[in-house]
Amino acid sequence: MATELCFACTDKDYARPATTITCSVCKKEVSWREAVTHYMGHGKKSGNDVVCPICNTKVKQQEYRNHVRRHFAAKRGLFYICGICGRSFVTLRSLLVHISKTHE
Fold it and tell me: DSSP 3-state assignment of 2?
């Protein structure tokens, strides 16, 4: 059962539990635990750079993983919200650690 990315895509103040998300690039349903890794697989290599499949920005290969993670971070008021599961964090760094441990 696919679930929308409530906090990242809408102005709703609640989170729906997500088990899968639909990839905006290939429309495949992906487990929320593998969302970042799946999106990283869509990157196109261009020399030492990678073109992000979400925003079409050229990013250095060593910075690409963090770049993709940031696409799933949303700022709401004083908190940072995970765009995949809806958990909130006080700092962006703690959110990025959560994304790396939970959604990759």
Answer: strand
Q: What is the average per-residue pLDDT within 77-103?
A: 87
Q: What three-state secondary structure class fits 99?
A: helix
- Rg from Cα positions in the chain: 13
- Beta strand 73-76 with 44-46 is unpaired
- Which run of H or E residues covers position 73? strand 73-76
Question: CA–CA distance from 36 to each of 14, 23, 78, 103 (Å)?
Answer: 22, 10, 24, 6
Largest CA distance in the chain: 42
Rounded to two decimals, the pTM is: 0.69
CA 96 to CA 70: how far, in whole Å? 7
Give residue limits of the domains in the chain: 6-41+73-102
